[in-house]
DNA sequence: GATGAATGAGTTTTCATTCAT
DNA sequence: TATGAATGAAAACTCATTCAT
């Protein structure tokens, strides 16, 4: 008779019907969350959009918070998958290529439904999930940091930890802003180029013209 | 008998006492907003903290939305003031200095109560104030762009408009993240250095080692 | 085609397995009812503890009310059995013995799971089962009254009907209170003695010292 | 900014209107509680019967539980007042009179809205107010015990503490049962007589005919 | 102007009950 | 027959807003 946390799915779906219901609910929640924000997302709305009764929603998610948490986990997994895959470089690429890969990897990661990511992070913080949020972002940081350490000889010497923070948050800030304020930029190949340049200039050894500061 | 918009202050405070009341309310709202987030900020709480009755609050702000809007305007003004002042460069600074100034100016701007800024932006979006949000950020962009155009000959040629977007959003992303996840970084002088490096590498002419892409 | 009442078991268990299931359900219901109280007893909980599915529970009991009713009947039978047996006096006991037997008999009756008894009575009232409750308690009264009438010549003359009410309810009140507030009293042999004294003083012919009222 | 318990009135009514509202709510709650029982008493029902909005109810009672608690306090006070007043014996009454006074005092106490008393006790237990319930009943016990100790020389020697428990619970049991099952008995003067006899026989020195057990 | 009591629509959540598999 | 996923009415409670004093 283990005590169940309120933020944990009430039960695992065993049958196909269940799984479909759970998926529909999560999908609906993601949609409405992005469209309305957390507080304006009502459980009734989610259930309705998912095409299930409010009772069914609560059968699988014991609270609104649990629903968000589940969505969070799914998003975390997707983002990490994308990021990790992007940074699985093989061969011996040029330094430039390495840096561009970092930029592109982080960018791709944060571009996985950035609006949802943003809402989840912001709500996660309010829901007392600071630790979870931190660990989430830190997992991305870890992937990036590992990658950078591997090529550190080619990179400008610096505090890798701080650099990783700067890189990931800078790119995240750009991606999120683009998602919200300038969605058309996602179509613009130059955005990726600019991110590449931003990272190159930051990570590569100092150029002669800058050394004279 | 023009219909008054619901999002506009009901009346201008004419007397000193009124102004003091309005200020107290805005101050209280800012505090609670940062501490609790928008939805957990109740008008009653704000009135209480401001030391006025709920009725008085509604005398000055016809709705919660109007209160947020007013706070938004105040924040906009403060941020712009800081940004503009920081970018009032005189003399003929070195290119490096120019770039560092941009970085520092934007950083200072976004460091004006970054948590509040963030909540306001995020709520502004929900409240259908997208235009206002855009124009807010664009006013900062304008200051930055103007500054950059002035020194464009010394900077790496690029789409200035896009570059401005990238710069402001990157720095904003870093500042916001630091405010939430790593507040201790605000004490770390290296953070400003890193932002300077990030901007230098991005804005300065391509270094030899990078030209060979 | 008589309409089946909603408060009556849907079907009689014909097979052994059915009977076992029904028993398990009733046992579970009794346990949870005592532990949590009526409103905090959910049918799902009962089914779980009984080790059957919620569907099965409803196969045997068409409603929560029917379940309570069935439990009620079982409790009635048990209480009456205990009471009747206790009052099956043989031989020609002394007057004192008779009175003590009454006290002990009633006490034993109400001590059969007193918490459950209490919940059932209280819920029976809410469920509009006033008649059933009345008839239940009256059956105990009947046993007691019959017994008393049999020895009435030795008892102080009085309205037997009223006396029976007083006796049964007084003892019930004490037993219930002990069950809830002072469970340790059940171990204390003096409690039974006190009940005996209470009944002796009440039922025996008036003593000299009292006649002078 | 002291933390307020959830079971405590949210604020003290300062104005007349407020006091009237609070009274109306408590009155309505008492009525519905007696008629329907705790769980079938909805806050909306109470508000409706009190002629106020649901919001007003929650302005004064932060939870359903707080409402019940407030009612409880009021009932406690009334019952104790009645009991204490009844046992303020002056002069030097006969032993019989003393005992009858005890009986009558306890009876009167438990006859103050006995249905409400019963519901409150039973709900108090569920609400984790066991301590409060205990202390309530113990305050009545205290009044009774004090009274008895005062006349103990005239009473049959026994464990006063246990005797007090037996007396109060016996009478409570009878009164409650009468209130529920036989309300007409309240009109019957013989009921009081019977309670007196019950107590006399229990508390007075053992009569000769009983000593020979 | 200032106050704070009153309002009630709207939110999360529970749980008895049904019925397709 | 047994199962447990699905249902939805109904309950407790919140909070922006109004308005009599």
From TrEMBL, chains A, B, C, D:
<dbReference type="InterPro" id="IPR023772">
    <property type="entry name" value="DNA-bd_HTH_TetR-type_CS"/>
</dbReference>
<keyword id="KW-0238">DNA-binding</keyword>
<dbReference type="InterPro" id="IPR009057">
    <property type="entry name" value="Homeodomain-like_sf"/>
</dbReference>
<dbReference type="GO" id="GO:0003700">
    <property type="term" value="F:DNA-binding transcription factor activity"/>
</dbReference>
<feature type="domain" description="HTH tetR-type">
    <location>
        <begin position="19"/>
        <end position="79"/>
    </location>
</feature>
<dbReference type="Pfam" id="PF17918">
    <property type="entry name" value="TetR_C_15"/>
</dbReference>
<feature type="DNA-binding region" description="H-T-H motif">
    <location>
        <begin position="42"/>
        <end position="61"/>
    </location>
</feature>
<dbReference type="InterPro" id="IPR001647">
    <property type="entry name" value="HTH_TetR"/>
</dbReference>
<dbReference type="Pfam" id="PF00440">
    <property type="entry name" value="TetR_N"/>
</dbReference>
<protein>
    <submittedName>
        <fullName>Transcriptional regulator, TetR family protein</fullName>
    </submittedName>
</protein>
<dbReference type="GO" id="GO:0000976">
    <property type="term" value="F:transcription cis-regulatory region binding"/>
</dbReference>
<dbReference type="InterPro" id="IPR050109">
    <property type="entry name" value="HTH-type_TetR-like_transc_reg"/>
</dbReference>
<dbReference type="InterPro" id="IPR041669">
    <property type="entry name" value="TetR_C_15"/>
</dbReference>
């Amino acid at each position: 008779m283990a005590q169940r946390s309120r933020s944990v799915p009430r039960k695992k779906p065993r049958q196909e019907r269940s799984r479909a219901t759970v998926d529909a609910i999560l999908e609906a929640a993601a949609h409405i969350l992005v469209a309305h924000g957390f507080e304006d997302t009502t459980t009734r709305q989610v259930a309705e959009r998912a095409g299930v009764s409010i009772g069914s929603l609560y059968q699988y998610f014991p609270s609104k918070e649990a629903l968000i948490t589940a969505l969070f986990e799914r998003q975390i997994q997707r983002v990490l998958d994308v990021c990790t895959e992007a940074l699985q470089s093989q061969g011996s690429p040029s330094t430039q290529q390495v840096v561009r890969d970092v930029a592109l990897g982080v960018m791709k990661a944060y571009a996985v439904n950035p609006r949802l990511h943003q809402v989840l992070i912001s709500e996660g913080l309010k829901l007392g999930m600071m630790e979870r949020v931190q660990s989430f972002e830190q997992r991305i940081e870890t992937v990036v940091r590992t990658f950078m350490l591997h090529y550190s000889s080619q990179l400008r010497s610096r505090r890798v930890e701080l650099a990783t923070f700067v890189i990931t948050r800078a790119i995240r800030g750009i991606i999120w802003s683009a998602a919200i304020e300038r969605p058309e930029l996602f179509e613009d190949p130059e955005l990726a180029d600019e991110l590449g340049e931003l990272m190159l200039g930051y990570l590569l050894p100092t150029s002669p013209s800058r050394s004279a500061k």
